[in-house]
Write a structure and sequence with these properties.
Blueprint (H helix, E strand, L loop, with lengths): L3 E8 L3 H12 L4 E4 L13 E2 L9 E2 H14 L3 E3 L3 E5 L5 E5 L3 E10 L3 E3 L5 H5 L5 E2 L2 H4 L7 E5 L3 H13 L2 E5 L9 H8 L4 E4 L2 E7 L6 E6 L5 E5 L2 E4 L3 E3 L30 E3 L11 H21 L4
Parallel strand pairs: 1-2, 1-8, 2-5, 8-19, 10-17, 11-12, 11-17, 12-13
Antiparallel strand pairs: 3-4, 6-7, 7-8, 9-18, 14-15, 15-16
Helix pairs in contact: 1-2, 1-7, 5-6
């Protein structure tokens, strides 16, 4: 089967992928971008974005990603719908399979496949997603200033987000599955000692309740089976993220959670000509603005690499 040959291939279409596309297009790399499973990335499930510079009145997440896409298109990016299903980095050019049916060969590859928030799997959680249910307290906590909110999770991220919420919300109800937190001792202690964080140990979420928006959460004690309903305006899920990196596991160096490792200060991976940007390689910040920043870095790194190899 003959493969299509491109100069620079970008996979993923969140802030990282689109920013990489804008820079790569301007550098004359004629990038082809495949949008992946969730065109626009995690921002398409975020309603209001108020912390991205340049939007003084805030903007809806999906609308912002349409703006990014338009800009990448105007610069000349070839934007396509499709999912990367397999890769082969054993020879040059690099090979990426799209939709399990066609292969693309590329001189430089920018991976911007992002990460997906882990959810509890409740139908009510999905139904009210964006209407008080959120997987990012730092993004959405501000909208519930002075209100009572719930958060589920027990790791360092959950502890950090609970502490963040405690500064702006009147009361934080924290739902923890076991009788202790997975978070580091220092983080757990800070949470336990924060007066307006109430922890429900050995508890799990039974249901998020609300018609058009979150009104309360029903929790169940795992030992006694007893259920109780807590009136809240928001429900934050902080049980972790999963990087969308499975197809690269035989080729790229990753940490134990599956985040692609990059050489510090660059977007270079352990495979020459392969660059990673955005949430697939960042488990610390996970913001639209930092993802866009690494997308810019990836395009500049790719341009330099192609120049050095005499391919540009």
């Amino acid at each position: 089967m003959s493969a299509e040959k491109v100069h620079c291939l970008i996979i993923g279409s969140g802030p990282a992928g689109y920013t990489a596309a804008i820079y790569a297009s301007r550098a004359g790399l004629n990038p082809v971008l495949y949008q992946g499973i969730q065109p626009g990335g995690q921002l398409t499930i975020t309603t209001e974005v108020e912390n991205y510079p340049g939007y003084p009145d805030g903007i809806q997440g999906p609308e912002m990603m349409v703006d990014f896409e338009k800009q990448a298109k105007r610069m000349g990016t070839d934007i396509r719908y499709g999912i990367a299903t397999k890769v082969d980095f054993s020879t040059r050019p690099l090979k990426v399979e799209i939709d399990e049916e066609k292969w693309i060969e590329t001189d430089a590859l920018i991976i911007s496949t992002g990460a997906s928030a882990k959810w509890l799997g409740l139908p009510s959680e999905q139904r009210l997603n964006g209407y008080g249910v959120s997987a990012c307290a730092v993004c959405d906590g501000f909208f519930f200033k002075g209100k009572e909110v719930a958060i589920v999770g027990a790791g360092d991220t959950a502890a950090e987000e609970a502490l963040y919420l405690s500064k702006i919300c009147s009361q934080v109800h924290m739902i923890v599955r076991r009788d202790e937190m997975r978070a580091s001792k220092i983080m757990a202690d800070r949470v336990i000692n924060t007066p307006n964080i109430k922890i429900y140990w050995n508890s799990e979420t039974d249901e998020v309740i609300g018609d058009k928006k979150v009104e309360s959460v029903r929790i169940k004690n795992r030992q006694t089976g007893e259920k109780q309903e807590i009136p809240v305006s928001a429900f934050f899920v902080a049980i972790g993220h999963e990087p969308n990196s499975a197809i690269f596991k035989d080729w790229l160096d990753m940490d134990e959670a599956g985040y692609v490792k990059t050489i510090p200060g660059t977007t270079k991976t352990n495979v020459e000509g392969v660059f990673a940007s955005g949430d697939v390689q960042d488990k610390v910040y996970r913001q639209a603005v930092t993802a866009a920043g690494t997308g810019c870095m990836a395009a500049l790194d790719a341009e330099r690499y192609l120049g050095e190899k005499g391919l540009h």
